[in-house]
Amino acid sequence: MPVQKERQEIKRFKSDTRNLIDATLLGISITFFGLIATIKPELLSQNPLFTLQLVLIIPFVVTGLLSRIKEAAYERAKRWQWLTFASFTISYGFFINAVGLVLSFVTPLYISLIFFGVSMALTLLRASIVVSYVPSQLNSRVVREIIHVALIVFLGILPALRIY
């Protein structure tokens, strides 16, 4: 029984820490949206994919936060884990895209492309380090990173290049 209690405490600690990260991302996203709407509102009509991603970050982060709380509370929480995983992966991808697209609007294109490239490279590096410590996470990390990279390529890089 002590091992089970220790696992539950570790699970709650991880949940609390991840919720702090998500809450910070939420605050940054709301501030980012507010600044754009106030300082340069024409950016919101310049690219509908940018605007959609910018506003959808908020409900996806909130869903991830609430799901993670439930995930920590349930012993068998696979569905909550899935929702947390999906919400965070999508919201983080949208966040990277929103920043990269703003860069593509206000700086030379290569700055935006460097931002996207470094973001993807660091995400893949972080994932490879996780897998080096916990090889059993290989499958879930591969799925997460494929989704993340696809989001960045199709909803970030291609719109930044004005392909659509």
How do the helices and strands line up, and which of them pair or pack?
Layout: H1 2-39, H2 42-46, H3 48-73, H4 78-106, H5 109-133, H6 138-160
Shape estimate: globular
Helix content: over 70%
Q: In percent terms, what proportion of residues is strand?
A: under 5%
Q: Stretches where pLDDT falls below 50 for ≥5 residues?
A: none
What is the number of helices? 6
Strands, total number: 0
Cα radius of gyration in angstroms: 17 Å
Distance between the termini: 56 Å
Determine the mean pLDDT: 91
Query: Can you tell me the number of structural domains?
Result: 1
Structural class: mainly alpha
Order of helices and strands: HHHHHH
Give the biggest sheet: none
Tag the structure with descriptive keywords.
164 residues; 89% helix; globular; single chain; mainly alpha; 6 helices
Description:
The protein is globular, with a radius of gyration of 17 Å. The termini are far apart. It has one domain. Helices cover 89% and strands 0% of the residues. It is mainly alpha-helical and 164 residues long. Helix 4 runs antiparallel to helix 5 and helix 4 packs parallel to helix 6.
